[in-house]
Amino acid sequence: MRDATIESLNGMLVEPGVNLETASAYLEQVPDLIEYLVTDMTVEEFDAINQNSWQMPDEYQHMDIAEYILSLCDSDARLQRCGEELLLFQERNLFDLLRYLKYLVDTLRANNMIWGVGRGSSVASYVLYLLGVHRIDSMFYDLDPSEFLR
Length: 150
What we know:
By secondary structure, the chain is mostly helical. The protein contains 7 helices and 2 strands, in the order E-E-H-H-H-H-H-H-H. The radius of gyration is 20 Å and the shape is globular. Mean pLDDT is 82; it is low at 1-9.
């Protein structure tokens, strides 16, 4: 198919340069997405479904994230702090989230993209600091990890 300049696709405007074949493929999924979003499912059910469908390469899906994070520690105090935080993440079944964050940060770095230095309660997590999600060393500032994982 040819590129659109500004054309209508099922009554929707398509921006210049958008491939109409790609746009059509996305439009075909709209009814399924609407059905998925308009539901009586609880927040917990919605979270459970989405936490089991992370879109990331196999190398990240199958990595031992705890081992990776612990390997970044250079002292007993840091190992202790990471161990405590990892237990909190594990209790909440959030290891897939940590794997995804590792993938996301690696992708941002590989593409020279900029993200925030840290914001809100996330800076209380030393594990997220080690993953590169933020740049606030919570051990240096003696921030309590329970502030993040409440």
